Amino acid sequence: MKLPESVRVLVVGAGFAGIAAASKILAEDPGADVVIIERAGDVGGTWRDNTYPGCACDVPTSLYSFSFAPSPDWTHTFARQPEIYRYLRGAVDSTGLRQRIVTDCELLSATWNSAASHWMVETSKGSLTADVLVAATGALSTPKLPDVPGIESFRGTMFHSATWNHEHDVTGERVAVIGTGASAVQFVPEIVDQAARLTVFQRTPAWVVPRLDRTLGRLEKALYRRIPVSQKLVRGVIYGYREAYVTALAHHPRVLPAVTTVAKVHLRRQVKNKAKRAALTPDFMLGCKRILLSNDWLKTLDRPDVDLVPSRLSGVTEDAVVDADGHSYPVDTIIFATGFTPTEPPVSHALVGTDGRTLAEHWDGSPNAFRGTTVHGFPNLFLMYGPNTNLGHSSIVYMLESQATYVAEALRQMTERRLSSVEVTEHSQQQYNSWIHDSLAGTVWNSGGCSSWYLDSEGRNPVMWPTYTFTFRNSTRTFDVSHYRGIPAKEGQQV
């Protein structure tokens, strides 16, 4: 598709978030003027980009999929990356979105024009105007590399797990892995037999529980295909089971020690080396940091050809990595599993609001929004996977579909009331975030005794949703105009 000169709704990003938003808008209004721009050559977002060995989802596939696009063809209860990528491409084709997507088109900037009540957008393929902007670029889209002395002097091979170098063979090499988060637990067991030696740097241990994965059989798939309601029932059961986690994580953390026993037993069974087991035992409550699911991560670290370094990376030389105590480890390849930048998404630097400041400048390192979706000073801007919509227990797809409903309702209200723009009031946004802050105070994410990527530099939590997901869905079923300042459309202005 060619980039138009103007559009009613511009969606930025064609991953789960962008597909959810565009699909819902068009489901409510099939004639809606909607265009999606995608900086890469295909849809898929994080599931297109992350192709490291062993890449898979740690949320059950029955939940980590669109409610409007069920698939009876999943091979595992926890889907692998190639399957999810294939599923997203299929969803785009089945919903007719493909013809509305402009690929290889990166958002460079978007500035709100108050006089014309539209966004002036600059992209790598040219400029356009958009009445409404939906930022669906994701929270985990830009890899984060540590600022380490000497990193530019390294003569070996370096890459981030999110941009895996498939042309590089680690067979027989000494490999350093920096980080022990969700991606490391998946790819380290996959490469350990190829490498001559692995050196894994761990700043903070994490609680690990078994991943209860199984292969979906032919009869089960046939049942889903012939009786689709059966798959919906399974989805509902798993949703309810997952929602029960919130009782422990958010409302009654005192029951967590019982749950922690499962992780402790898992650790004891898989790690026989006492020194390594001690280093792998967290000193904070389960759930404070992301709970990791793996059946082979811990036993991989227990191997004699794997060095576990319970330290941060403090330096890099031409042929080695250095820990915080100054010990040097000769390596040929460095793989960074250091995560992303969720508290300062790159898109925030590209969006300029009513006062001429970027969203990043507005937030100043501590993102906040109303219903995780709208921000005062940025009319007609809707954020998908915005502040305080992340989950520690269920599927973000559920939250994205809830936000998509909110966006579609906003567009409907704007049309019915003939509003050229809507902007959440500062008072409503402040009240909402006060509630968020108070609700998070007693949860394990805030008070579990750890330092995680959930918290910003001020110790505030701009990432997590504090309670049950159905509460969020109920709050986004309708667009509450009373919390917004609406500007009536001018005579003859199309809305």
TrEMBL record:
The EC number(s) this enzyme carries: 1.14.13.-
GO MF term list: oxidoreductase activity
Gene3D superfamilies registered for this protein in UniProt: FAD/NAD(P)-binding domain (3.50.50.60)
Transmembrane segments: none
Domain of life (superkingdom): Bacteria
Key words, A-Z: Oxidoreductase
Pfam families: Pyr_redox_3
PANTHER family: FAD_NAD(P)-BINDING DOMAIN-CONTAINING PROTEIN-RELATED, L-ORNITHINE N(5)-MONOOXYGENASE-RELATED
Name recorded for this polypeptide: NAD(P)/FAD-dependent oxidoreductase
